[in-house]
Design goal:
- By secondary structure, the protein is α+β, with helices and mostly antiparallel strands.
- The chain is about 20% helix and about 45% strand.
- The protein is built from three helices and 14 strands.
- The strands form three sheets. Strands 7, 8, 9, 10, 11, 12, 13 and 14 form an eight-stranded antiparallel sheet that branches. Strands 3-6-5-4 form a four-stranded antiparallel sheet, with no helix packed on it.
- The chain starts with a strand and ends with a helix.
Length: about 220
């Protein structure tokens, strides 16, 4: 945008960037990115620069030309807090991480062939998640989207080794098999650690025992 103002018989050209900066100073709007209307502060979004965290939202903006992404947003790199390696029992075998998994906050991945189960450990910075309960609900929604005829438990708050934890289970069908996802979200002072396990539903009771051990380990990290 370019604004032309008459001044003492002359014309002064004011670049759009100057006008935008002045407007932002008045309104408090900020951000150089655009997101959809469902985005919330603390959400993780994928951009051409990698996974980012929504820091603030400034409402609809003329800067956002894509009608599917009408909301101006300030984003920050979603850099997970460093986490120690996981000390898994012998029946769990650590797997190599995919090239994009560390960028997504994943720091360990393992499978248990005797249980036909897998588990992924990930973390995000505590400051990027203003509402842990809402964060857990979003995880449940994402798990349900992978399944046919999904069912879920409510997010429930519990404790593990004295630490607060939010847990949820989602069950549904993939390629004719009934699968159960069990997610545990554990907030700490600086991070939120998510343990996400999945496997065949008929073996879930045995998986639950293994997950309890995992919970205790993570709680003492």
């Amino acid at each position: 945008m370019l604004l032309v103002l008459p001044l003492s018989g002359c014309f002064v050209y004011i670049p759009g960037s100057v006008i935008d900066a002045t407007s932002d100073a008045i309104t408090g709007s900020e951000g150089e990115n655009c997101v959809n209307t469902a985005a919330k502060v603390g959400d993780l979004v994928k951009t051409s620069s990698g996974t980012m965290t929504v820091v603030s939202l400034s409402g609809t903006s003329s800067r956002c030309k894509d009608p599917n992404l009408p909301i101006r947003a300030k984003l920050a790199a979603a850099i997970p807090a460093p986490a120690p390696p996981i000390n898994l029992s012998a029946d769990w075998k650590a797997q190599p991480l995919g090239s994009d998994e560390p960028e997504r906050g994943i720091f360990a991945h393992a499978v248990n062939k005797s249980l036909d189960a897998a588990v992924v450990y990930s973390s995000v910075t505590r400051s990027s998640v203003p509402d842990v309960q809402q964060f857990a609900e979003k995880i449940a929604y994402l798990q349900m989207a992978k399944l046919t005829n999904p069912e879920r438990t409510p997010v429930h708050e519990t404790t593990c080794s004295g630490r607060t934890m939010f847990a949820i289970e989602v069950t549904g069908t993939i390629n004719g098999h009934r699968l159960t996802y069990a997610d545990m979200i554990m907030p700490t002072d600086k991070t939120i650690i998510e343990v996400s396990a999945w496997g065949f539903s008929e073996k879930f009771p045995a998986q639950a025992d293994a997950l309890r051990h995992t919970c205790e380990f993570v709680a003492n990290m």
